[in-house]
Amino acid sequence: MAQGEASAAVSEARQWGRLMEMASFGAIPGDGVNRACLTPLDRAARRRLIGWAQAAGASISIDDAANLWLRRDGTDPTAAPVLTGSHMDTQPNGGRFDGMYGVIAGLEALSALADAGTVCRRPIEVVAWTNEEGGRFAPGCMGSMSWAGLHPLSAWADVTDPDGVRFAGALAEHLADEADLPRRPLGSKPHAYVEAHIEQGPRLEAEGVDIGVVTGIQGSRWFTVTLSGETAHAGTTPLALRRDAVQDMVRAIGALNALMHDPKDVLRFTVGRILVEPNTSNSVPSKASFTVDFRHPDPAVLLARGDAIPGVVQAAVRDAGVAVHENFHVLPLQFDPAVVGAVEAAAAAEGVSALRLPSGAFHDAQFVAAVCPTGMIFVPCRNGVSHNPAEYATPAHLAAGTRVLTHTLVELAT
Ligand code: HGY
Ligand code: MN
Ligand code: MN
Question: Rounded to two decimals, what is the model's pTM?
Answer without folding.
Answer: 0.97
